[in-house]
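User: Teach me something about this protein's shape.
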Amino acid sequence: MSGFAVEWLALREPADRRARSGDLAGALAARLGARARVSVVDLGAGTGANLRATAPLLGPEQRWTLVDHDAALLGEARAALGRWAEATIDAGDPLLIEKAGRRITVSFRRADLAADLSAALGRAPDLVTASAFFDLASPEFILRFAAEVAARRAACYAALTYNGVQRWAPSHPADSAMAAAFHRHQRTDKGLGAAAGPTAPAHLAEQLRRRGYRVLEGDSPWVLGASDAALLGELQDGFARAVRELGTIDEATLDAWSRLRRTGGEVGHTDLLAFPD
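Assistant: First, the predicted structure itself:
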């Protein structure tokens, strides 16, 4: 799976954090927060934003493995976690950090998840997590992922999986056509097979339920306003670039849609939390 720009990941992190389902975060804390030690594998870890959002829900001793195909992003994750921590011991791999009374040991693993999913997950993590990841993966990969997680009897926490909802303010007559074209682009191969796109939340929930997991889901939409102008602008430009690659929307419509700068919007996501019964 190809990497994302550090600047984009930094821009979206505050919106991601406030969008997460509070009910599911509370359920995760109730299930694993009291454990003295917990091990976590984070897939598609990027710059470590998922660790920064999830670690406060877990217990005092945590061991994380951050997995990504992009070595540069893993390097930025190490630097960003060092800035986030209250204290660090950085003598290579792993990185030891302290934050809010928690001791967190972080290892960094570069892996091609299409080929090395089992190795990336390791032997027996307590929790496997990912953020804004599964809509970029194929249904076949999601099936493999669910089977691997179930084989380890690990919990699964998937945050911010895109679910297809797009609302813009002000609206434009081409919004529906643009969304449909964007979804066709989303289903192209991002490195893990032809992606599930907005159907990913349903695929992931179904595959885990088939393996005897108790699955909880919650909405986690980006609800964006005037204070999110930079994120809104980048979203709109990114959607337009994706649609232009398909060539299914005429240039005049694309240009008109792109010129209407938005002051608000909603992008839908679904959070999932699953435990083996």
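Now, about its shape. The first strand starts at residue 37 and ends at 43. The CA atoms of residues 157 and 273 lie 5 Å apart. If you'd like, I can walk through any region in more detail.
User: That's plenty for now, thanks!
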